[in-house]
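Onboarding guide, step 5: your first structure request.
Type a short instruction followed by the sequence, for example:

Predict the 3D structure of this protein.
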Amino acid sequence: MSIKKHFLALFFLFIGFLAYSQTDTVTMTDGRELRGKVVKYNPNDLQFIHQNETLEYTLNKKDISKITFSSGRIEYLNSTATTPNTSQSKDYQNKVAILPFSYVRDQEKSNETMTKKIQQEAYTIFNSKKQNLKFQDPTETNALLYKAGINESNLQGYTMGEIAHILNVEYVISGMVSIEKTNTYTSNYGSSNTNVSQKNNGAKVNSTGSSSSTTYQNYNTSITMNIFSVNGDNLFTQNHNSFWPYEDAYKTTLDYLAKRTPLYKK
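The system replies with structure tokens like these:
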């Protein structure tokens, strides 16, 4: 009997996996994701059934950003959706969002804490010289990304224009920090003491000494920074290798690159 129950459990698990693998995902221009099945594709709209439901809904193509089919194919719709219309342009104008920076340490992706730490540091650098620009607080940026279901693993499925539209900004800053261990070096230093004593009109000299060493680890730091417009145009791309061999050299390198972007107002 237990074997039969085990078999049934595996069977239903397989059916559930099969159903999930056949799910289409429709991403709306406001960032919402609808999971289910596209049953009919019309010139101006499409028929869609939500997951675990039977009722057909009509979705207007102008409200759809992209469709990720169960086969893995992605179809982008309404390409102008990332460009704000005249009534919306004032909401986007001069607003800038900074995405969490990708962080690679010794050729392996690091934790989410560092990506957001660098994001916050970049925000501090840019916001100190903002002038007529308004830099979106990273907490707001990350909240909007979370609500739209966007994270590092699926970010590549969106254009930067789509991201700007979701964040309601005119410009998006993205980047990657790469840190690798290189060589080590050892610093040696020592000290000595000399004592002189008098005994029977004679001098006795005692000399003692000690030495120690410290080993330091060097690092190679590289940062790439990009700036995109709400139209998806790449306005700035630059890579820079840090001159300093320290582990936290990315901070000065981040500052160096920021000062060379068109969004940093000196």
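Each response can be followed by summary notes, for example: DSSP finds six helices and 13 strands in the chain.
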